[in-house]
Amino acid sequence: MTLKSEFEAACPCCQAKLVIDTNLRRIVRHEEPERGDRPELSEAHRLIAEQAERREALFQQSVAAEKTRGDALSQRFEEALRQANTEPITKPTRDFDLD
Fold first, then answer.
1. First to last CA, the chain
2. Which of 31, 42, 74, 85 might form a disulfide with 17, Cβ 3.0–4.6 angstroms?
3. Backbone dihedral region for residue 25 (phi beyond 0: left; psi -120 to 50: alpha; all else: beta)
């Protein structure tokens, strides 16, 4: 039901139907267009299961990364220690030693 002061227009962005009141100079009602990509309610269980599997896979991937992280850090520490042992020990120069 539309009043004489109301008219309908299509949103140029989303193609929703807008009802605009000229007296109020406002949108008083809108109707969203039917979306083709909206999932069916009967598929909700399948969608939730797929998302749970994806979350579990990401979690397992992060667990595996954390397990190998300790090995990588210890390997980097050993390399740095070997490099420190091969470099000669020198006394650091200070600014006031240069005078």
1. 93
2. 31
3. left
Contacts of 32 (CB under 8 A, 6+ apart): 14, 16
The ranges assigned to domains in the chain are 1-33, 44-86
User: 57 forms bridges with which residues in the sheet?
Assistant: none
For the segment 30-81, what is each residue's pLDDT rounded down to a tens digit?
A: 888 887 777 777 888 888 999 999 999 999 999 988 888 888 888 889 999 9
pTM: 0.40
Q: Of 4, 48, 10, 9, nearest to 23 (Cα)?
A: 4
Amino acid at 88: P
Give residues with Cβ within 8 angstroms of 47, minimum separation 6. Answer: 39
The 3-state DSSP class for residue 36 equals coil
Q: DSSP character for 32?
A: P
